Amino acid sequence: MEWLDYLPPLTKGAWVTVQLAVYSTVLGGIFSFAFGMGKLASNRALRAFSIAVIEFFRGTSLLVQLFWLYFALPLLGQSLGVDLRLPPVLAGVLALSLNIGAYGAEVVRGALQAVPREQTEAAQALDFTPRQILWRIRLPQAVPEMMPSFGNLAVQNLKDTALVSLVGLSDLAFRAEQIRNITQDNTTIYTLLLLMYFGMALVLTLCMKLLERSVGRWRSGGT
């Protein structure tokens, strides 16, 4: 087989990888803000829950999390008489998004805490509610500071999607391994795999840079 013959199946796998990366990055961003702001909440129960989730998913392996959701959770459901089987796509997206959400939560927390305390105190003196302070004072300043770190997390998340091939999802890594097993053309397959991941990472980095720039303009327009 010529190397061009490898491209159609690899492209199909790359499309699955792109979908996984997009879904898990978006959901991971939501988890990041939820857990990051939860860690700073005045409610003790919410704060304790957020801290527990963050530390658990930061302190355990993504691979083990994925295997637990796909293999162990259904067995737990059987013992409880509940069907908890997850499709490979859902298990992969959930594991990836919870993992990136735990790391992103610390980014959110750090950026919010970096907003000068004097501004919060000035807003309180002007009788702003806590919600108004968060949305009008803290977040507009904190979000642009988060963007470079979120860009790094998004690229890392793209690379981590290769793990979902271990639960049978036909992503780029899975397709490449299938072709390699048939052709034994290790050099060509893995070279194409490297280049395709690198290309997707470049595109993702560019998208994050554009988003970072638009967020910076939003902040400038709001000040």
Helix and strand layout, with pairings?
Elements: H1 3-39, H2 44-59, H3 62-80, H4 88-114, H5 117-125, H6 130-160, H7 172-183, H8 186-222
Helix pairs in contact: 1-2, 1-4, 1-6, 1-7, 1-8, 2-4, 3-4, 4-6, 5-6, 6-8, 7-8
Query: What sort of overall outline do the alpha carbons produce when their principal axes are compared?
Result: flat
Estimate what percentage of residues fall within beta strands: under 5%
The run of helices and strands is: HHHHHHHH
Protein structure class: mainly alpha
Q: Segments where pLDDT lies below 50 for 5+ residues?
A: none
Largest sheet: none
Number of strands: 0
- Give the termini distance in whole angstroms: 59 Å
Number of helices: 8
Question: What percent of the residues sit in helical stretches (DSSP H or I)?
Answer: over 70%
CA-atom Rg in angstroms: 21 Å
Arithmetic mean of pLDDT: 89
